[in-house]
Specification:
Blueprint lengths: L1 H55 L6 H16 L3 H22 L3 H4 L2 H36 L3 H7 L28
């Protein structure tokens, strides 16, 4: 009888250890996935000043857009959570769409080699950000599922594992097409 109890206790302890390690592994994967997004978003923020300077020479009347980009870059440095950075990312994406749409109306800007190279780098970075967001959301969803599925939810609660926010678009504004208005006067 004593051996059976010992075997049951050992099996339970091994199950707890296994679930705990699985939760830790999933949490680390989520952290890594967020790190990949963060790297790509930082890369985009690093490319933007050169891009803006190139566009500024051709579109001086778009100063409001450039000021918004500068404000977003400053806010990015102060953002700490996934939600804050996701919101700033959505705002920046919308602003970059505006710049790209404006550039379509300046043939000499589109012909500028520096603009073309920076546009291509930004497009590549946007694709990497999109992939990284998808990967992060996938890993965060797997992790969040483990926090809710029995019996790992018991271990998660015992060790105070917290769910992770998904990287998503919160506003309907970010989902809309960009409207470009050339009716402004400088």
């Amino acid at each position: 009888m004593g051996w059976i109890i010992l075997i049951i206790v050992v099996v339970i302890v091994l199950a707890i250890i296994s679930m705990y390690n699985s939760l830790v592994s999933s949490k680390l994967k989520v952290d890594n996935a967020w790190g990949q997004i963060d790297v790509q978003l930082q890369r985009r923020f690093d490319l933007i000043p050169n891009f803006v300077e190139t566009v500024k020479g051709y579109t001086a009347h778009e100063s409001e857009t450039f000021e918004k980009i500068a404000q977003l870059r400053t806010s990015w440095a102060n953002a700490g959570t996934v939600s804050e950075k996701a919101d700033l990312n959505n705002q920046l994406s919308s602003t970059l769409k505006t710049i790209m749409a404006v550039s379509e109306n300046y043939p000499e800007l589109k012909a500028n080699q520096n603009f073309s190279e920076l546009s291509e780098e930004l497009r590549n970075t946007e694709n990497k950000i999109s992939f990284s967001r998808q990967f992060y959301n996938d890993t965060a969803t797997i992790y969040n599922e483990k926090l809710q599925i029995f019996p790992s939810n018991i271990i998660a609660n015992m060790f105070k594992f917290k769910p992770r926010d998904l990287f998503q678009t919160d506003s309907d504004e970010a989902r809309k097409n960009v409207k470009v208005d050339f009716g402004k006067n400088a």
